[in-house]
Amino acid sequence: MSRALPLLAGLGLSIGAVGLGFLAGSDHLEGARLAARWTSRVGLPLFLIAYLASSLHQICRGNLTKALIRRRRQWGLAFAWTHSVHLVALTYFLAIAGTPPDVVTILGGGLAYLLIYLMALTSNNWSMKKLGAKWKYLHSFGIHYIWFIYLLTYAGRLGDPQMSHIGIIGVGLLVLALLLRLITRWRKKSSSEKR
Predict the structure, then answer these.
(1) CA distance linking residue 28 with residue 157, whole number of Å
(2) Mean per-residue pLDDT over the chain, rounded
(3) Cα(141)–Cα(134) distance, rounded to whole angstroms?
(4) Sign of the CA dihedral 84, 85, 89, 90?
(5) How far apart are CA 184 and CA 136, in angstroms?
(6) Which residues of 71-105 are buried (b: 16+ CB within 10 A; e: fewer)?
(7) Quick one: 184 exposed, middle or buried, by C-beta within 10 A (0-12, 13-18, 19+)?
(8) Is the pLDDT of residue 125 over 70?
């Protein structure tokens, strides 16, 4: 798997989501809303690849999962790229719609973006060595906080009859991903205790 593949996937998905959003919208405002929504959605699979790479490799060792582990940083950077495009699309939509976000959204989303960019900036060997145990804490806390924000976002769709199917799929994927991580962590811990 090429080092550039994850980044090209992130670039293609985010630009495609913006373009399709504006094409599918009935007017400019609707197009901007769809672009903001769809740029977030295309980030989810990239996030899940980075989130599950290690767990998938523990469950099914093979060339594909080995490649995912080897390129996990690139998948994380691809996610950071798609979410940067999402931030621009969302900001643009809110500006032309004249609806500023509430304080909770700004603080919760702002922390998520701060963590995304801190993890992206420290996704290298030099930062791992320099930060030591703090690096692992930052990346572990950061990825789970982003997971939580995604979960809240998709759970918010469950009450909307037109969007409930999206909420069910999103919540289902995120809960399944967390369970997979917990199960593989438990299996790894129990096997190391038996040695």
Answers:
(1) 23
(2) 92
(3) 10
(4) negative
(5) 18
(6) bbbbbbbbbbbbbbbbbebbeebbeeeeeeeeeee
(7) middle
(8) yes
